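agent: user wants the full assembly modeled, not chains individually. Plan: 1) parse entity lines 2) check alphabet per entity 3) run joint structure prediction 4) return tokens. Steps 1-2 passed, two entities, 655 residues total. Proceeding.
--- entities ---
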Amino acid sequence: MKIGLNRKATNYLLLFLAIIFVFILPLFLKSPTYLQIMILLFFYAYLTTSWNLVGGFAGVLPLGHSAFVGIGAYTSTILYLHYGLSPWIGMFAGGLLAALVGVIIGKPTFQMRGAYFALTTIAIGEGIRVMVENINKIGPFTVNGPRGLLIPLTGTSFVNFQFLSKIPYYYIILTMLIIVLGITYIISRRRIGYYLAGGGEEPEAAQALGVNVAKYKLIAMAISCFLTALAGTFYAQLMLYFYPKGILGLDLSFEIAFIALIGGRGTIAGPILGALVLRPVNEFSRIYLSGFLPGLHLVIFGLILIIVMIYLPRGLQEPLSKVYNWFADKLVASFSFKGAEKG
Amino acid sequence: MLLAPSKPFLRNRVKEVIMDLILQATVNGILMGSIYGLTALGLTLIFGVIKVINFAHGSLLMVGMYTAYWLILLTGINPYLALIVVVPLLFFFGYYMQEIVIKPVFKAERDVREPITVIIVTTGVWYVLDNLSLILFGAEYRVVKTSLSGKTFLLGELIVSTPKFYGFVATIVTAVLLYWFLKKTRMGKAIMATSFDRDAASLMGINQYRIYNIAFGIGTATAGVAGCVLIPFYYVFPTVGVIFDIRCFIIVVLGGLGSIHGAVLGGIIIGVIESVFAQFMASTWTEGIIYAIFILILFIKPSGLFGARQDW
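--- prediction returned ---
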């Protein structure tokens, strides 16, 4: 009897091993600093995967996604501070609000192309930031303008979404990331995924075939905004403090787009690869170099971006998936060989 | 009840003061706005020819400002004489930036009308330039004292800042020169032809990539002019470009992408709005108003005030 591994089984096995690895990682990673780096890595991978639903599959370039991160963070925090509503519920309230805002913004903007779309999303994102920075109170709710909001410390409490240790945050964002990757995978395999890809590449051709491109783009936008806002609540609870420039700023929007583009937009692995490459560069150069060379990490960021765009316009996933395929093929070959011997 | 005095002559006096205030703010707005327009000229030219929004434009302005700053600080020459050095320098800077960084990406995406990848590359250039200058020059706001700093003259009852007025003059001169160059010279005509139809222009024997380099160079050189003009009354710091970047995008869309007089008029409109509204509300809100106007224009008339109707 031949005990072999086929390619599909190898893929599942390697994926399973990777998931086991990230789940047991906190057992070895004792330092809170490294845990925080991992948490932020997953956080950015999550944000970028959500962005990718619009920016990758729908083929447009949104550069204002931090607005939805901010909507999520502000909604859940304001509801928590005023009504004591658990951030777990506030999270979904923020998500729904972000989805609504996303649809309102998307309806007119999806008619635009390329540069206009990118500029509009920047203007809307920055407009929301300016508004939040200038408002101290909306009705009974304190927004606190440019000073941002502080969430009072209550100690470890699941209902309040607060933990003194970093480990629960690690597992929460990891679960969120796996769920959002699952959603992306399902969308890319379903009809909506094909419609989006078609509408992104050749809108006229897709429309001629009877695809309602605008409708599917709006659905993608709503899902993307909803998911992005959930991450906003997570960030608020992780840091317990946030302010408009940080969470609603242009920098965050651009970083999300950069990670996607460097990893490879419109692919499932792209955002993760992008985050795996860029986040450590960002964190370590910030820790070790910013003392005497401020801004160096952003120079490296820009250079990586330029070089990747010149030599690998489809992102890092292209060469890396070749390496992966080669490795998986080798693995299959060597295992089938051993299996044949045993049989 | 300060604003509603009961006596009629007092009421008239208040009205007069407010009118003066608005008039003064309008003049300041026109002058500052024309300089915004000057910075937007290069952006609109680059977009018109290459069909790419150059996100690094503000950073190129920053490079121009730092060049002018060091030149004036070290040699003490008149800021407008610095133009002779800064403009050619910036031209070559833009020329080679396009040649080395943007052209390869462009060639890879030749058949796309508006290549998104190129937008991203210019964003990368923006990050590199801004942060390199942060490393080289530090984050402090720098001011250089010139013979013009703080000088004003009276125009009727209005106070006009001399360096801003020269900036206004420089804007008009640059715009007219650019117009003349594009309409009357051989090279300008080649640039116009490429902007209308790059394939047809190539078939006529125009080397489109060289045209792109030159257009990019000219766009950067106008940013250099703006840099020199700004130096006598503005401060330089590594992220100064971002302030102008967003305004330039708004101006260029308002005036119509690719339109030269649109950029100048759009700049003046934005400058006046900013300066007049700032008299009545917190100046942080004026930024919000500008964004709101921008979004309205995009939804109502995306081709802008003077732009040609295009399919993008």
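agent: reporting back. Residues 146 and 244 of chain A are 6 Å apart (CA to CA). The radius of gyration of chain A is 21 Å.
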